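The pair is quoted verbatim below.
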Amino acid sequence: MEFNEKLQKLRTGEGLTQEELAEKLYVSRTAISKWESGRGYPSIDSLMAIARYFHVTVDELIRGEEMVTLAEQDKRAEKQKYTALICGVLDCLTVLLFFLPLFGDAASSVTVFAMTGIGVWLKIVFLSLIGLTALVGFCGVVIGSFEKPVWNKRLLLTGVGLSIAGTILFILTRQPYAGVFFLCILVIKGFLLLKSK
């Protein structure tokens, strides 16, 4: 008997609905539905919670090859979680552009606030891009602790997009130091994303 069939049998044997079981295990009803339909496996922590709740062993719930699949999924999910966290921290580091003298102004380097040789709108675009990138990074770090892989992925993609936009914007506006700063962050993110696959 497969895991999904065992879980459904245990749940119905206790007279529980999917919603009630989800509340007892602190997961969503859709997670229970997914597990019972055979479209996925719970994490190892959820599997242990199921075993404890129904007073069975993990071995009784899941076969050896299913356990290997489950362990691989958990390992991949952990790797993606840490990649998203590191990319979020890198995006948070863009706040340094507010304080470091990486912008050219006539013959010297100044902070973005002290720039005088550019238009007001371009300065607003610079400040907005830096602030938005740092905000996305901060949200990525915070949301990463809530185990929401969909949000992690969205924030990660948004951060990569902002890094690309920042690199292009700063290079096109002849701000090479800020452009290289964004490019370095983008290269590190690319390396981490390739490694997490």
About this structure: The CA atoms of residues 25 and 113 lie 51 Å apart.
